[in-house]
Amino acid sequence: HTYKILCIGASTGGPTAVQEVLKGLGKNFPLPILYVQHIDQGSDQKMVSWFNATCPDTPMEMAKDGQIAQKGHVYMAPADRHLVIDFINKEGKPVLKLSDEPPERFLKPAVNKLFRSAASLYEKHCLAVLLTGMGRDGAEGCKEIVDKGGYTIVEDKSTCAVFGMPAAAIELD
Asked: Is 11 a residue of the active site?
């Protein structure tokens, strides 16, 4: 399929894993990249700065409500809000929405929220990566993406700091 969006979800050990993914994408990556990281409030902007210093080929910024995501750029969910795709504009670009909905299974932002919105709007054109982390966040979203014809990748147990989230996605096929 021709992919039109890349979504990344991570938790414990995520920054290092995401750094590896972003470095591997190289310059001029042809898709917008949406990223949910379980992180404490106040640390999110520092993490964005760290990514920009260590992965200069894929500029990252904190996602903003109503923002139009551009190819080759990473948009990270703020520590206290869900990141979802509100709609796809006339030019085919995702318009981002920051949601104040309650936490999902005690998590805000939740990877599942992002993955579900991407599955719903992009179907077979959605590509998602679920990386290291405790719990099950992202597993149901991966399943929805696959059920809609999209493609998901989960981190291998041998490189995970915690194999919970990827293992949960594998359990759901």
From this structure: yes
